[in-house]
């Protein structure tokens, strides 16, 4: 009896990487190391977070002694957020980063990124998601327009519909009522394509930011 085996698959993970404010000037150098380590940069943006936004991002650290200094440090200047993709991206990025304390990293992992670019336990140059679930949450925080696979279901799906789909659809239907076209279905389909909030702009965005 001949058995039909499934086709082999490559499962690609995504993780969030942050180049922190004190090493933003090393952005191109760090990106080159990331790419040479087998990662693909699938999304990227430069932004300046407020202390409140930093508090929300690091909500799981709330109450710890270093929390005020952490939020002050992360909001002290612009940072670069990137979505990295490769097989086992979360664990490989953590391995490349090294220990969170840059002083210890220089002793135990001298070739890690935090050993090279970090200063101490707080100013450790780079951030990486600790797990697949935290990567998903952090990517959504920094890139709220991104759709992550698998497509969300249940409450997450309802949240996504309320946040992105319904406002766009409502705006399209309002425009349709004002325009009153002869073929409303085709007109609405064209309008939605034109005003899709998730229309791919990735390559242009990366190129523009690199030029800056």
From TrEMBL:
PROSITE patterns hit by this protein: NDPK_LIKE
Cellular localisation: Cytoplasm, Cytoskeleton, Flagellum axoneme
One Pfam family it belongs to: NDK
Entry's Gene Ontology BP terms: cilium movement; CTP biosynthetic process; GTP biosynthetic process; negative regulation of oxidative stress-induced intrinsic apoptotic signaling pathway; spermatid development; UTP biosynthetic process
The protein's name: Nucleoside diphosphate kinase homolog 5
Record flagged with keyword Electron transport: no
Chief place where the protein resides: cytoplasm
Taxonomic path: Eukaryota, Metazoa, Chordata, Craniata, Vertebrata
Keyword Kinase among UniProt keywords: yes
Record text on subunit structure and interactions: Component of the axonemal radial spoke complex 1 (RS1), at least composed of spoke head proteins RSPH1, RSPH3, RSPH9 and the cilia-specific component RSPH4A or sperm-specific component RSPH6A, spoke stalk proteins RSPH14, DNAJB13, DYDC1, ROPN1L and NME5, and the anchor protein IQUB. Interacts with IQUB.
GN (gene name): Nme5
Family to which the UniProt record says this protein belongs: Belongs to the NDK family.
Any GO CC annotation of this UniProt entry: cilium
CDD domains: DD_NDKH5-like, NDPk5
GO molecular function, one term: hydrolase activity
Coiled coil stretches, renumbered: none
């Amino acid at each position: 009896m001949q058995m039909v085996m499934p086709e082999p698959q490559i499962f690609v993970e995504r993780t969030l990487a942050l180049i922190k404010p004190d090493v933003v000037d090393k952005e191109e150098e760090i990106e080159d190391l990331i790419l040479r380590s087998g990662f693909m940069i699938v999304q990227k943006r430069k932004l300046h977070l407020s202390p409140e936004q930093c508090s929300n991002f690091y909500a799981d650290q709330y109450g710890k002694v270093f929390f005020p200094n952490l939020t002050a440090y992360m909001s002290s200047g612009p940072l670069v957020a990137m979505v990295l993709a490769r097989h086992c991206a979360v664990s490989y990025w953590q391995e490349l980063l090294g220990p969170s304390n840059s002083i210890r990293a220089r002793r135990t992992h001298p070739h890690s990124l935090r050993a090279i670019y970090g200063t101490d336990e707080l100013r450790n140059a780079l951030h990486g998601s600790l797990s697949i679930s935290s990567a998903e949450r952090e990517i959504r925080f920094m890139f709220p327009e991104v759709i992550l696979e698998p497509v969300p279901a249940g409450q997450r799906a309802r949240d996504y519909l309320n946040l992105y789909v319904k406002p766009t659809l409502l705006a399209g239907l309002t425009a349709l009522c004002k325009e009153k076209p002869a073929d409303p279905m085709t007109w609405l389909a064209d309008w939605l394509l034109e005003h899709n909030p998730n229309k791919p702009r990735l390559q242009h965005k990366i190129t523009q930011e690199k030029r800056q």
